[in-house]
Amino acid sequence: MRVLRIKVKPNARKQEIREEADGSWVVQLKSPPIDGKANEELIQLLSKTFKLPKSCISIKSGAGGRNKLVMLNDD
Entry's Pfam families (predicted)? Predict the structure, then answer.
């Protein structure tokens, strides 16, 4: 089980995920932060990137903000 610190940038031109030098992640999403659309896109992108089912990914804190703690249950 891993916990990722993620800074989300919604309404970006392209979808991108990158790891920063301090171990945190920056994720650019095309979706707007309305009605959970950006969170859905984030979970879908993490699922594809880490090759995990979406059911193994959950947002532990920050669901309504840009800074999030996301748990990956890869056991």
Answer: DUF167 (PF02594)
Q: What are the sequence ranges of the domains in the chain? A: 2-72
Q: How far apart are CA 64 and CA 60, in angstroms?
A: 11
Concatenate the DSSP letters of all residues of 32-67 into one string: -SSTTHHHHHHHHHHHHHHT--GGGEEEEE-TTSSE
pTM, rounded to two decimals:
0.93
pLDDT profile of the chain (75 residues), mean per 10: 96 96 97 95 96 96 96 87
Work out whether the CA dihedral 51, 42, 63, 53 comes out positive or negative: negative
- Residue owning tokens 């992108």: 45
CATH architecture of 2-72: 2-Layer Sandwich (3.30)
